[in-house]
């Protein structure tokens, strides 16, 4: 089997999910070519696992100070290049196309009549999951941004729908974590504002991940440049996580048994919906705007929740190899029977 795998690279969550799938696909000896779009190649990091991958400009949303700027998004979009890439991408040499909400591979497969599997959190929004800031425009983006002939949405709970548990690395949770250590990952917020908010909270050690080129330590605040291994180490050592309301980091934190506080990006329906789902499930806490008082209250009162998820990536790969692509519901039911929460 030969697969073309498209990944929306705007945020690190899609790439993290692709890393998990890469390991599962490689373990079964499947040949895969990867395409990443939505971020310049020079801003990608720790990409060795994907071999000689391809980067396309694609389409992404511009976010400034925690809010989507729709004017800049439209102004900076190169629709001519996007259209050309969709129309000229050759998918005929592949048995199947997988898209993690990546538009070029999805549309190229659609126009070529090639089977395309949508694999990612966004595909869960076809079903009656918790939704916030829903609108006709948001629904159209979810439906048409990267359409697939078969889609597997992922979420923290099935909500009675045929969706999958999160695709994450399923390493065992650490036996102990530092209750005073907090991981902070707010890439869409103003860093100076974030640091000003946590600076008074001197009883905690904060590991802040940002696009800084060099690490630094300022009392109880440690600044870390982006890096997969260091991030995973800090995630395992901490007991609390403060992040935007993306899907993948919250999924990893839940699986490892971390306290979660999210601040959704304003104007993004997916993140607002994720925050709502975390609250409804009792899995995490959300704040509409950054607040030192809110963070302090959460650190002192919020419970730790752990949800043990199965190896979804390995199960998806076996499903692909079995060739029973007309029965995605069976895989969903099988996996949710193994989920446990504490």
From TrEMBL:
The keyword Transmembrane helix does not apply. It holds the Pfam family Glyco_trans_1_3. GO terms for molecular function: glycosyltransferase activity. It comes from the Bacteria. Keywords: Glycosyltransferase, Transferase. Gene3D superfamilies: Glycogen Phosphorylase B (3.40.50.2000). This is MJ1255/VC2487 family glycosyltransferase. It comes from Saccharospirillum mangrovi.
């Amino acid at each position: 089997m030969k697969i073309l795998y498209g990944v929306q690279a705007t945020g690190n969550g899609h790439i993290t999910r692709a890393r998990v799938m890469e390991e599962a696909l490689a373990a079964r000896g499947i040949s895969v070519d990867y395409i990443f779009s939505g971020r310049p190649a020079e801003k990608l990091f720790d990409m060795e696992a994907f071999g000689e991958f391809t980067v396309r400009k694609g389409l992404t949303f511009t976010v400034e100070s925690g809010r989507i700027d729709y004017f800049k998004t439209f102004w900076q979009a190169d629709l001519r290049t996007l259209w050309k890439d969709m129309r000229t991408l050759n998918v005929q040499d592949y048995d199947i196309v997988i898209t993690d909400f990546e538009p070029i591979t999805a549309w190229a497969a659609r126009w070529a009549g090639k089977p395309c599997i949508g694999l990612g959190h966004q595909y869960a929004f076809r079903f009656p999951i918790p939704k916030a800031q829903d609108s006709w425009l948001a629904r159209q983006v979810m439906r048409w941004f990267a359409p697939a002939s078969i889609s597997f949405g992922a979420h923290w709970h099935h909500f009675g729908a045929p969706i999958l548990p999160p695709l994450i690395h399923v390493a065992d949770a650490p036996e102990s974590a530092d209750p005073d250590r907090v991981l902070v990952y707010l890439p869409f917020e103003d860093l100076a504002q974030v640091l000003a908010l946590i600076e008074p909270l001197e009883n905690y050690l904060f590991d802040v991940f940002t696009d800084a080129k060099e690490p630094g330590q300022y009392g109880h605040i440690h600044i870390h440049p982006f890096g997969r291994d260091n991030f995973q180490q800090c995630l395992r050592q901490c007991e609390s996580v403060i992040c935007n309301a993306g899907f993948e980091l919250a999924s990893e934190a839940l699986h490892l048994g971390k306290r979660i506080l999210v601040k959704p990006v304003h104007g993004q329906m997916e993140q607002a919906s994720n925050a709502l789902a975390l609250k409804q499930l009792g899995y995490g806490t959300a704040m509409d705007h950054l607040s030192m008082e809110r963070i302090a209250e959460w650190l002192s009162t919020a419970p730790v929740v752990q949800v043990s998820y199965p190896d979804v990536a390995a199960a998806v790969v076996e499903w692909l190899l079995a060739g029973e692509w007309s029965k995605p519901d069976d895989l969903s039911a099988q996996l949710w029977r193994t989920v446990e929460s504490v």
